[in-house]
Design goal:
By secondary structure, the protein is of the alpha+beta class. The protein contains 14 helices and 14 strands. The strands form 2 sheets. The chain has an 8-stranded antiparallel β-sheet. The chain is elongated and about 140 Å long.
C-alpha cells in the first residue's frame, strides 16, 4: 500500500498496526517527559515551553489511542496522525538542543509508523522527508536562530542514524512483503483440472518451482504396496512424467539425508557437497547427495530436497537453482513439499475413485449384457433349433442353412460371454486358470492368422497373483508375439510363462531376423538408448518389473520379469 492511497486503510479495521502505533505513541510521550526534568542546560523559559508541549503531546496521544482502541472508524485518521507526528517531532527537535535529546526516537517512531501502515514503500517515502526536515532545522540553528544551536556534527550523525534505521525498516518491510506473498501463493495452491495424473502433477511441480524461484524441479513418489516409482519433472524447456521400477532410482538421496529437508551446494567431483539442513551446516557423507538420474534433471549449482508423506504415499520434491541459496529457503521448500504431497495424494484418491466408478459401470454393463443380449441370443438359438427339427422333411440345403445360423449365433454368444468376463473385476482365485486359458487361445488364434506355429508353455502360476499383473500378462505376451511375427518373420515362436523366485517370468523367443540391434541389453540400457518396443518397456516398468532383450541373426528373445508381491 502506498502513501498515495491512505484512505484505503479507513475502509479496513485498524488492526494491530494502528493499535501498536497508538500504544507506542503513548509510551513515547510519557518517557519523553523524564529528560526535561533532568536537563540543567535548558533555560527556564524554554524548558517550560517544551514541558508544556510534551504534556500536550501526551494528551494528544491518549486521545488518539482512545479512538483507535474504541474501534471507531475514522478513514483519515492514519494519514492525519502521521502528518501531525511528523510536524510535532520537527518542532521538538528544533526546541530541544540538550545532550539527552529524546527527539531522535520520535523520528525513529515516525519511520516505524510508516513501515507498519504502508510497508517498505511508506518507509522509503518518509525517509527523505525526515532528512530534509532535520537538515532545515539544523541549518536554522547553525545560522544563529538559537544561541545554543545544535552542533553540526551531531546533526550529521543523527541523520545518518535515522537513514540507517530507515534502511533496516525498508529491508524488514520487503522481507515481510515477500513472506506475505509466499503465504498467499501457498494459499492459492492450484487444484489441477481433470487431467491425467502425470500431467496434473507436472502442473503442480511447475507451480512449486515458480514459488521457490527454482530453475527446475522434480517430484518422485510411490504409492504404498505398489512396486513402482513415479516421477514428474519440470524446467523452462521441458516437462514430463515417467514411471520406473523402484530399483532404478533408489535410494533417492544419501541414506543419512533421507529424513531431512536440505540444500546441497558446491558439489565436487567426488560427490561431496555442502549440506544445509535443520541440523545445521555440514559436509555431505561419502557418495552423491542425490541420485544421479535425478541430478541429470536438475541443472544448476545448488539443489534442494524435502520429503513428504501421506496415508497412501511417500516421496520427495527436488529443486535446483543456478545460484546458491541459504538455509532461509528451507521452510518454504518444506511447505511446498507438503503441499505437493497432499495434492498428489488427492489426485491418486480421485483417480482411484474414478477407476472404482469405471469398475462399477463395467459390472452394470456386464449384468445388462448377460441378462439382455445373451438371453435373447439363447432364445433365438432355441427357436432356430426348433425350426430345424420342424423341417425334418425339408430339403437339406435349407436345414443346413438354419444349422449354420444357429452355430454362428453360438459363436457370437461365446464371444459376448468372453467380453462380459473381461468386464468383471479380476479375481486372484481364478487367475491361474483364466490366464492359462487365454494364453492358449491367443496362441491358437495368432497361429491361425499368421500361419506360424506358436508353442505356449505355462507353469503353475502363483495363487496370490496381484490383479494389475494378472491383467497385464496376456496383453504383454500378445504385443511381444505380434512384434516378432510382424518384424522378425520367424518360422516358429515360443512362449513360456513360469515363476522365478518371488516373481513371474514371461519369455517370448523366435528364430526370425531379430531386432535392428545385436547383443544382450538389460532394462536400464534399453531405456537409456531408447531401444526395443517402448510401450512394452513402459508397461513392464509401470508394474515394477524389468525387460531384457537378446537379439541376433538367429532370432530374438524377450524376457519380462514381473514382481508378484
Amino acid at each position: 500500500m502506498s502513501l498515495s492511497t491512505p484512505l484505503v486503510v479507513g475502509r479496513l479495521a485498524y488492526g494491530r498496526s494502528e493499535e501498536t502505533i497508538a500504544s507506542t505513541r503513548v509510551a513515547l510521550a510519557a518517557l519523553s517527559l523524564f529528560p526535561i526534568w533532568f536537563d540543567p542546560q535548558e533555560s527556564a523559559s524554554r524548558s517550560g515551553l517544551i514541558y508544556t508541549l510534551y504534556w500536550g503531546y501526551g494528551i494528544y496521544s491518549v486521545l488518539v489511542a482512545g479512538i483507535v482502541w474504541s474501534r471507531v472508524r475514522v478513514p483519515w485518521l492514519p494519514l492525519a496522525t502521521h502528518t501531525a507526528d511528523l510536524a510535532i517531532f520537527s518542532a521538538f527537535f528544533y526546541l530541544t538542543t540538550s545532550t539527552p535529546n529524546p527527539t531522535f526516537m520520535y523520528f525513529v517512531f515516525i519511520l516505524f509508523s510508516a513501515a507498519l501502515r504502508w510497508g517498505w514503500v511508506g518507509t522509503l517515502r518518509t525517509i527523505p522527508l525526515v532528512v530534509v526536515l532535520l537538515a532545515l532545522m539544523g541549518s536554522s540553528l547553525s545560522h544563529g536562530a538559537m544561541p545554543s544551536g545544535l552542533d553540526f556534527h551531531r546533526l550529521i550523525i543523527r541523520i545518518g542514524y535515522l537513514v540507517m534505521v530507515g534502511a533496516l525498516l525498508v529491508y524488514l518491510g520487503r522481507h515481510e512483503a515477500d513472506r506475505r506473498q509466499e503465504i498467499q501463493q501457498l494459499a492459492r495452491w492450484p487444484d489441477p483440472p481433470n487431467l491425467p495424473e502425470g500431467e496434473a502433477v507436472c502442473t503442480l511441480v511447475a507451480y512449486g518451482a515458480h514459488l521457490l524461484e527454482a530453475d527446475a524441479a522434480v517430484v518422485v513418489w510411490s504409492v504404498m504396496d505398489e512396486p513402482r516409482v513415479s516421477a514428474a519433472h519440470w524446467s523452462a524447456s521441458a516437462s514430463g512424467h515417467t514411471v520406473h521400477a523402484a530399483r532404478e532410482i533408489e535410494p533417492l538421496v544419501n541414506e543419512s539425508l533421507e529424513p531431512l529437508a536440505f540444500i546441497s551446494t558446491g558439489e565436487s567431483a567426488s560427490g561431496r557437497s555442502l549440506i544445509v539442513s535443520s541440523q545445521g551446516v555440514s559436509r555431505s557423507p561419502d557418495g552423491a547427495s542425490i541420485h544421479p538420474t535425478l541430478v541429470a534433471l536438475l541443472p544448476g549449482v545448488c539443489r534442494g530436497s524435502a520429503p513428504f508423506s501421506t496415508e497412501r504415499l511417500t516421496g520427495r520434491v527436488f529443486v535446483s537453482w543456478r545460484e546458491s541459496r541459504s538455509g532461509d529457503a528451507l521452510p518454504l521448500l518444506e511447505a511446498v513439499g507438503r503441499q505437493i504431497g497432499e495434492s498428489v495424494d488427492h489426485l491418486h484418491a480421485r483417480e482411484r475413485q474414478r477407476r472404482l466408478a469405471i469398475g462399477e459401470e463395467r459390472m452394470r454393463l456386464a449384468r445388462d449384457l448377460h441378462d439382455g443380449v445373451v438371453q435373447s441370443l439363447t432364445g433365438i438359438r432355441f427357436e432356430l433349433q426348433r425350426l430345424w427339427r420342424a423341417l425334418a422333411g425339408a430339403p437339406a440345403p435349407a436345414r443346413d442353412r438354419l444349422l449354420d445360423m444357429e452355430r454362428a449365433l453360438a459363436v457370437e454368444q461365446r464371444e459376448i460371454r468372453r467380453f462380459i468376463e473381461g468386464l468383471n473385476p479380476f479375481t486372484r482365485a481364478a487367475a491361474s486358470g483364466l490366464i492359462a486359458q487365454h494364453l492358449e487361445e491367443l496362441g491358437e488364434r495368432l497361429s491361425g492368422q499368421w500361419h506360424v506355429p506358436i508353442d505356449v508353455k505355462i507353469d503353475q502360476l502363483p495363487s496370490d497373483l496381484p490383479p494389475a499383473v494378472g491383467h497385464a500378462i496376456v496383453p504383454m505376451v500378445q504385443e511381444a508375439v505380434t512384434n516378432a511375427l510382424k518384424h522378425g518373420h520367424p518360422s516358429r515362436v515360443r512362449v513360456a510363462v513360469k515363476t522365478a523366485g518371488h516373481g513371474l517370468e514371461l519369455i517370448v523367443s523366435d528364430d526370425g531376423r531379430g531386432f535392428d540391434f545385436v547383443g544382450d541389453y538389460d532394462h536400464e540400457t534399453l531405456a537409456a538408448q531408447g531401444l526395443g518396443p517402448a510401450s512394452l518397456r513402459d508397461r513392464v516398468a509401470s508394474l515394477g518389473g524389468r525387460l531384457a532383450i537378446r537379439s541376433g541373426a538367429s532370432g530374438a528373445r524377450v524376457e519380462m520379469e514381473l514382481p508378484c508381491q
